[in-house]
Amino acid sequence: MITLHRLGHTPEPFALNPDLIVTVEAAHDTYVTLSTGVRLSVTETMDEVVAEIRDWRVLILTRALASQPTTVHHL
Fold first, then answer.
1. What is the pLDDT along the chain (75 residues), one digit of tens a residue?
2. Is residue 64 within 8 Å of residue 26, measured between CB atoms?
3. Among 18, 42, 60, 73, whose CB has the most other CB atoms within 10 angstroms?
4. CB-side exposure of 68: number of CA atoms within 13 Å?
5. pTM surpassing 0.70?
6. What are the backbone angles phi and psi of residue 73, rounded to the nearest 5°?
7. What's the angle, vertex CA 55, arms to CA 48 and CA 50, rounded to 5?
8. InterPro entries, alphabetically (predicted)?
C-alpha cells in the first residue's frame, strides 16, 4: 500500500493499493484514476506518486526474493 493525501480534505493520509491505479495525471492538480473508475485528487505531485509506486514495488520484489530458498536441488 502507498500513502497519499486527498486534496481539499483533512490532512490525514490514506492508504491505496497501487495495483488499482490506471493513470496518474498532472494538470493544475494531480489526479489518480483507479480501475474502479474512481478519480482521486491528491496533494502529491505526479512524480511523488510515481516514486511511491516504484518504491512499493521494489519493496515487494525485495521481500519476495529474500524469501526464496538459496539452495538448489538437482534431480
1. 999 999 998 889 999 999 999 999 999 999 999 999 999 999 999 999 999 999 999 999 999 988 877 676 677
2. no
3. 42
4. 11
5. yes
6. -100, 120
7. 30
8. SwrD-like (IPR009384)
